[in-house]
Design a protein that fits this description.
The complex is a heterodimer of chains A (321) and B (300). Chain A is built from twelve helices and twelve strands. Chain A has 321 residues and is of the alpha/beta class. Chain A has two domains: 139 residues, Rossmann fold (3-Layer(aba) Sandwich); 142 residues, Rossmann fold (3-Layer(aba) Sandwich). In chain A, β3, α4 and β4 form a beta-alpha-beta unit. The radius of gyration of chain A is 22 Å and the shape is elongated. With 300 residues, chain B is mainly alpha-helical. Chain B has one domain: Orthogonal Bundle (ABC transporter involved in vitamin B12 uptake, BtuC), CATH 1.10.3470. Helix content of chain B is 74%, strand content 2%. Chain B has a two-stranded antiparallel ribbon with strand order 1-2. The chains are: A alpha/beta (321), B mainly alpha (300). Chains A and B meet through β2, α3 and α4 of A and α1, α4, α8 and α10 of B.
């Protein structure tokens, strides 16, 4: 270990000389998430890769740290304190509880949150257009309006949609409010099917049989973890199942208009770069997801008694075989 | 570990010290293995947050949270005493019921308090930065609650309560109303856990439905670590030991959070907790609440 130090120092010196002048200042970007989760990890990697593209590279002029609270809000609060003490250039909290803990702990260090569904409801910012203070970031709210339009485009005769969700997930409750708001605009009536645990998803889906023309599964961790149970009900009763995330399409959703968290991370990274270049976080409006992609599963659609319009299949980024 | 991280560990350790005192009262004093705290900690946070959001005075809201916690503790005691449900099971029933109740109270899984007034608001004019103010406030609360608890346990009534836990039959023979003692002890225990939740929510700016998970493990770890470092028959010292244990536990976590020490990183946290508690349990001469619990269950 000790022998490596001079070599490491030399490498550092060398890289500093190569980087030479262009980006003389070293920066520290500290990320933290409430729990290890593929989506949250992808967002973190997106941030890091975007920083690299902008000329901030780990091992050269960028210190990039990551802490996970392992699902414990007490630890999240403690991590927030540690980060404030470390005085990084920017803190990037990923997920709502992590962001709340960080924002409550500092009014000085720039914060760019990500993967937060409802930043105003979580009191991270006063308004989306003018956040003010030291905080900005991006929301990962599903474009629900577009989702409802997609359901109507593929199954124009659908009048009611069933929505299984976990009433204990903050994001799902927000999504459900949005669904209730947007569904009537597309002539759809909403039937709720609450399932507080993944073991209760099958029963929740069964409760929708005969009541709905389509099922829409929002980005709810509990329901998505038992997605196959919903698909089973869909196939047996020929009810088309739509999803809010594209990862569920190979698992049996007929179509989903989604985004991936890596792209969310890249978009967040762009905001981090602007802050690193000296812009004031409070002046940057909170952004929504820009890149969406359509994934379809024609074989599953057939099993559920639906034929996907050719225009939709042609538009899809991925067609599951 | 930098200074702010240390003060953060101190603050969170002190707040969870309230949980440790609650666990000490139920597990140690009353000999009642009570898992209700996993529900009463977030209950305290939920009640406070819901009340503050609609404009209630933060101190009043915190008091209401303690009252709610006390009721939760009494429900567990009621299930156990009135219907003879095994204490462990009775507390699990209350705990899972509280999950739904907490959701009802908050109306949603996460309530934010970042911009709301809290119990700290009156002191913010003193010009002290938050990372000093919060641990100082927590320390003041702990001194008050710990002092009251030590005095209570040393009083005649408190002695009856301790006798109830030590030997219920003997206590009854001496004229102690053991049933009532259990109700009072369980109410106090969970009121303290709820106070911890109420303070945690106000100091960290949010109440979340998931924040109760593992509270009992943290509380037990604090009690056990405290007993290892500070052993005494004196009730005052025992109370101090609980709080000290809680702070030491948080400092251990803060060390684990600093990757440069021992090469640990945040994903090793749960392992650190397990090793810490196991080491404390293995050390000779430590009363083991879990072992004691199973011995009791087997004896039935």
């Amino acid at each position: 270990m000790r022998e490596n130090i001079p070599a490491g120092a030399a490498a550092l010196l060398l890289s500093a000389m190569i980087a030479g002048g262009a980006l003389a200042e070293d920066v520290h970007v500290a990320t933290t998430a409430i729990v290890e989760h593929p989506a949250l990890d992808a967002a973190r990697d997106g941030v890091r890769d975007e920083l690299k593209e902008a000329g901030y590279e780990v091992g050269k002029n960028l210190t990039f740290t990551y802490e996970s609270a392992q699902g414990n809000p007490g630890t999240a609060a403690q991590i927030a304190r540690k980060l404030i003490g470390d005085k990084p250039s920017v803190i990037v909290p990923i997920s709502t509880p992590s962001a709340q803990a960080v924002v409550a702990a500092t009014k000085d260090i720039p914060v760019v949150f990500t993967a937060v569904t409802d930043p105003v409801g979580a009191k991270l910012v006063g308004s989306l257009d003018k956040p003010g203070g030291n905080v900005t970031g991006m929301s990962d709210l599903s474009p629900i309006g577009k989702h409802m339009a997609l359901i109507k485009e593929i199954t124009p005769r659908a009048k009611t949609i069933g929505v299984p969700f976990n009433p204990g997930e903050a994001n799902s409750v927000t999504l459900l409010e949005l669904i209730r708001k947007h569904a009537p605009e597309h002539g759809l009536e909403v039937v709720e099917a609450p399932a507080p645990k993944s073991a209760e998803v099958l029963a929740a889906a069964q409760s929708l049989i005969g009541k709905v023309d389509a099922i829409y599964v929002p980005t709810d961790n509990t329901i998505v973890s038992a997605f196959e149970a919903v698909v089973k009900i869909g196939v047996e009763n020929r009810i088309p199942v739509y999803a809010g995330d594209t990862d569920s399409v190979p698992r049996g959703a007929i179509a989903a208009l989604g985004f991936n968290y890596y792209d969310v991370g890249r978009q967040t990274g762009k905001m981090v770069v602007r802050v690193l270049k000296g812009e004031n976080p409070g002046d940057l409006a909170v952004e929504g997801v820009e890149i969406t992609e359509l994934h379809v599963n024609p074989a599953m659609a057939e099993k559920m008694g639906v034929e996907l319009p050719e225009a939709v299949v042609a538009r899809a980024k991925t067609v599951v075989k | 570990m930098n200074q702010i991280a240390f003060l953060g560990a101190l603050e969170i350790g002190l707040v969870y010290g309230l949980v440790a005192l609650g666990v000490f009262l139920s597990f140690r004093v009353l000999n009642f293995p009570d898992l209700t705290v996993d529900g009463s900690f977030p209950l305290g946070a939920a009640v406070t947050a819901a009340l503050i959001v609609v404009g209630t005075d933060p101190y009043l809201a915190t008091g209401a949270a303690m009252l709610a916690g006390a009721v939760a503790g009494m429900v567990t005691a009621f299930l156990n005493l009135r219907f003879k449900i095994l204490h462990l099971l009775a507390s699990i029933l209350t705990m899972i019921a509280l999950y739904s109740i907490n959701l009802r109270i908050m109306g949603r899984p996460n309530l934010a308090l970042i911009t709301e007034p809290t119990v700290l608001t009156p002191f913010e004019g003193l010009g002290l930065p938050g990372f000093y103010l919060k641990p100082l406030f927590a320390l003041a609360v702990l001194l008050l609650i710990g002092g009251l608890l030590a005095r209570f346990l040393a009083s005649d009534y408190g002695l009856g309560l301790r006798a109830t836990g030590a030997n219920a039959r003997m206590a009854r023979a001496q004229g102690v109303a053991t049933g009532r003692s259990t109700y009072v002890g369980m109410a106090l225990s969970n009121a303290m856990a709820a106070l911890g939740g109420a303070l945690f929510a106000q100091m960290n700016g949010f109440a979340d439905i998931t924040m109760g998970t593992g509270t009992i493990v943290v509380g037990l770890a604090a009690v056990i670590v405290g007993e290892v470092v500070l052993r005494s028959r004196l009730i005052v010292i025992a109370v101090v030991a609980c709080v000290l244990g809680s702070v030491l536990y948080r400092i251990a976590i803060a060390l684990a959070l600093n990757a440069d020490v021992l090469g640990l990183q945040s994903s090793d946290l749960n392992l650190v907790t397990a090793i810490l508690v196991a080491a404390a349990l293995i050390l000779p001469g430590v009363r083991n609440p879990i072992k004691a619990l199973f011995a009791k269950v087997a004896a039935r």
